[in-house]
């Protein structure tokens, strides 16, 4: 039974186990949206939208099954499932949820954000409710407005998992990362970072590898070069000042590090406009986890387990 309209468009795609990767680099195209009421005349529904993503924000308790994977719905939960996924809802009573059906590309291994099928929205519920109401109010007569509201909602949903992972980060790893970030301009020693984090050097390395795919030294080098690129491209701080602020005061060493990481000297880097595709060509590794971390896309525990 399908109570929410479908509109066809490209080839159907199926979900990855536990979630899917969505490409949010461009605004989605809204096909339909509304506030649906279920559980009045039936205790359940099932359906499949072959060509559209589905976003739901729930106000009730019930059960959701996505491609055979069961989830418990609670008030304030939000689900995002890709085209082609088979959904089954089981209602406990009258059930209301906001929904939006839309077109957007699926991400691949190097593009997009991995989003679980179902998450608790927590403190994001009021904001998501306002955004979904905006989508519903604009979809019939202002499609561009509806698209913008949905785009903002999708980014909030995409970041829920990242915030949850951050909160679940090992406390020793969190201490080590905070220490590195606060003292990036200073000389950093793994032994001292491990002492601050209250773990051994080997344990600290294992934690960094599990979370970032890199060693402690590799993470420090990456953080320094990311900050250097930002300062070179977005500020007028002299090159020597940038080098000192990221802990590489030797200009020869800083120049060499920039050329190794980006393929350009600091002054050349400052003089050009960085394009995402250019930046990706000059990564030092083909490891998908490291490349994903470098793009600023969080490594989700579920996804790491699947890749392992």
Task: Report on this structure.
- The chain has 308 residues and is an alpha+beta fold.
- The protein has two domains: 19-166, Jelly Rolls, CATH 2.60.120.280; 171-307, Homeodomain-like (Arc Repressor Mutant, subunit A, Orthogonal Bundle).
- Helix content is 44%, strand content 20%.
- The protein is built from twelve helices and eleven strands.
- It has helices at residues 125-138, 143-167, 171-182, 190-197, 201-212, 216-234, 239-245, 251-262, 266-271, 276-281, 288-294, 301-307; strands spanning 19-22, 29-38, 44-48, 53-58, 62-66, 69-73, 77-81, 86-91, 95-103, 113-116, 118-120.
- A five-stranded antiparallel beta sheet has the order 2-9-4-7-11, covered by helices on one side. The protein has a four-stranded antiparallel beta sheet with strand order 3-8-5-6, with no helix packed on it. A two-stranded antiparallel sheet has the order 1-10.
- Strand 5 (62-66) and strand 6 (69-73) form a beta hairpin.
- Helix 1 runs antiparallel to helix 2 (143-167) and helix 3 crosses helix 4.
- The protein is elongated.
- It starts with 18 loop residues before the first strand and ends with a helix.
- Residues 1-17 and 273-308 have low confidence and may be disordered.
């Amino acid at each position: 039974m399908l109570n929410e309209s479908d509109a066809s468009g490209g080839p159907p795609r199926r979900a990855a186990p536990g979630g899917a990767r969505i490409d949010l680099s461009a605004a989605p195209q809204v096909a339909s949206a509304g506030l649906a009421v279920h559980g009045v005349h039936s205790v359940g529904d099932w359906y499949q939208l072959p060509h559209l993503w589905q976003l739901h924000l729930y106000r009730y308790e019930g059960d959701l099954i996505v491609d055979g994977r069961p989830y418990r719905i609670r008030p304030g939960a939000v689900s995002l499932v890709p085209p082609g996924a088979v959904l089954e809802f089981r209602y406990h009573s009258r059930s209301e949820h906001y929904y939006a059906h839309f077109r957007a590309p699926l991400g691949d291994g190097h593009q997009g954000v991995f989003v679980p099928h179902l998450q608790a929205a927590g403190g994001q519920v009021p904001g998501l409710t306002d955004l979904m109401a905006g989508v519903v109010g604009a979809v019939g007569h202002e499609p561009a407005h509806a698209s913008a509201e949905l785009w903002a909602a999708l980014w909030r949903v995409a970041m829920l998992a990242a915030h949850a992972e951050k909160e679940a980060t090992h406390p020793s790893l969190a201490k080590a990362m905070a220490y590195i970030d606060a003292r990036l301009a200073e000389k950093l020693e793994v032994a001292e970072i491990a002492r601050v984090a209250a773990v051994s050097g080997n344990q600290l390395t294992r934690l960094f590898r599990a979370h970032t795919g890199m060693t402690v030294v590799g993470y420090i080098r990456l953080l320094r070069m990311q900050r250097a690129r930002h300062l070179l491209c977005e500020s007028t701080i002299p090159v020597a000042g940038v080098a000192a602020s990221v802990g590489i005061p030797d200009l020869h060493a800083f120049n060499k590090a920039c050329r190794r990481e980006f393929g350009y000297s600091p002054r050349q880097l400052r003089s050009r406009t960085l394009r995402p595709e250019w930046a990706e060509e000059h990564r030092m590794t083909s490891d998908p986890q490291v490349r994903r971390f470098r793009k600023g896309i969080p490594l989700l525990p579920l996804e790491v387990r699947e890749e392992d």
